[in-house]
Amino acid sequence: MYTQQRSDLPASQAVLASEGGKAILASAGPDLGVYSDVPFTDKFVRISSQVLYRALVPSTAATIRGLVLLATIVLILTTPLRTNSNSGFWEVVLVILVGLYLVAFGNLLVFGRSLLVRLMLGPPVYGRLGGLPVRTIFAAMKLSVEIRYHLRRSDWEKIKEFNAYDREFTEAIVKRAYYEQFGAEDETEDSPEFEAAWQKVWNDQILNVGPGNLRFRDVLVDENIGFRTEPGKLFTITATAGHLFDLEFFGGIFVVYLHLSNQISQITMVQIILPLLLLGPVFVFLVQSHQHAQLPLVGPIEGIPDDLKEEANTRLEGIKGAIIRPVKVRVGKSYLKIVRNFLGKFVALASALNALTWYLAIIATLVLGAVLPELDAASSKSWYADLAIGVLIIAVAVPVAFYLSFWILENIRQLVAPVVAGLIVVGVPYGFQYFTTGQIRLDEAINRIIGLLGTAGTVLTEAVASKVRDVTEGKEPEEEDAPLVQVAGE
């Protein structure tokens, strides 16, 4: 739980394994050191996600991005007041005061960051003993149920050794946290009195944590892989997607600003915003769909006691740094649905917070415009009202677009198949016509294509309606039977 199978885990807690993520041994014969290459898509997504993470999350990148956003937001908020002003001095004063307000509000958000994280992702899974947010851990448990790994025997032995120690190490870390908070002054971690109290906490509370029917006691098995990889992926995707959706929200507001400033038309505004809203969902979909091809065995994470970290490095010396490449990975039908539901609430709350931030900034700017001389705030109210409407539309559109586009990506095969079949039906006769006569009757072809687009819209509408019916009627998606455990040589 505190060892890693991903190199980009944060200085916090890794997690347990789930029963559903059991490794399946492939009957591939002896390990000759011959491995298939990692698919290009997996390589590309892994590298792209790491580049995007480093471009958005670290403090230096965040500072640079923050300064650029600060200057742009000040520009947007003060545009109508500066346009209607006859005093360059008071325009400068307005820009400075609005900038100072935004900096102060940003610092307030940083100060209350732990509260915001708790609001979006829940409290620590171990309560006063810490741990990753409970929603992250529970989502990781559910995701691990959906993954099956087929491994070579030699890789399986490494995974088994790694996971066996991970269980011991997890208990040791949580036990240390419990001792530091509740251990008596005259007790040690190994004293019989403390050990008895700890075992009761471990067995009655910690091991009983979990969503639905899943419990830690059920998932702490050596055969498990999924729950040791998914928490790191969820942390990375949450941190990266959080910044990405913030930029997506800001981009939408900036496009609205361009329209209000008469720089683009309304139709152009819509044409820009709609594809912009797809960036976040597509990124999340690709990252969660294409990062199973490699399982790096890294070792203990940062931020844990030195003695336990040294012990972990010693125990894992023989396998630390190994990269496991599964022979096959099978992901269940509910995997992406769980990701969508986990991030959906996060995106909705982040959009609401962004909207609140913009509304408070608009109010502050109007107040300054009314207080400072030489600034005509009254004539600018309609402009700010239109901006406020744009903020509301973007705040609603971002989570709605996330849910809808992510669902479309989940079901892309079912949705695209009728369209592709229709294109073949339409295209083949005209291809034959052109091949034999050298001409195509464009009017007839265009009419058929328009009819095909109408059919595609009907298919999409019916698919969405079917999904809504399933949700309202409480139907659960059918799951494939879990594969049997295979032993090499059998």
What features would you describe in this structure?
With 490 residues, the chain is mainly alpha-helical. It has helices at residues 40-56, 59-83, 88-111, 113-121, 134-145, 153-182, 192-204, 216-219, 226-260, 266-276, 279-289, 306-315, 335-371, 381-410, 412-437, 442-472; strands spanning 3-4, 23-25, 147-151, 295-296, 299-300, 323-324, 328-331. It has 2 domains: 3-410, no CATH class; 418-475. It has a 3-stranded mixed beta sheet. It has a two-stranded antiparallel ribbon with strand order 1-5. Strands 4-6 form a two-stranded antiparallel sheet. The longest helix has 37 residues, at 335-371. The chain is flat, with a radius of gyration of 28 Å.
Keywords summarizing the entry:
7 strands; 490 residues; single chain; disordered C terminus; disordered N terminus; two-stranded antiparallel ribbon
Which word captures the global form? Answer: flat
> How much of the polypeptide forms β-strand, as a percent range?
under 5%
The strand line-up of the biggest sheet is 2-3-7
- Radius of gyration of CA atoms, rounded to a whole number: 28 Å
- Mean pLDDT across the residues is 76
Number of strands: 7
N-to-C terminal Cα separation, in Å?
32 Å
In helices, the fraction of residues equals 55-70%
Spans of at least 5 consecutive residues whose pLDDT stays below 50 are 3-36, 476-490
Largest sheet: 3 strands, mixed
Number of helices: 16
One letter per element, helices H and strands E, the order comes to EEHHHHHEHHHHHHEEHEEHHHH
What's the topology here?
Blueprint: E1 3-4, E2 23-25, H1 40-56, H2 59-83, H3 88-111, H4 113-121, H5 134-145, E3 147-151, H6 153-182, H7 192-204, H8 216-219, H9 226-260, H10 266-276, H11 279-289, E4 295-296, E5 299-300, H12 306-315, E6 323-324, E7 328-331, H13 335-371, H14 381-410, H15 412-437, H16 442-472
Parallel strand pairs: 2-3
Antiparallel strand pairs: 1-5, 3-7, 4-6
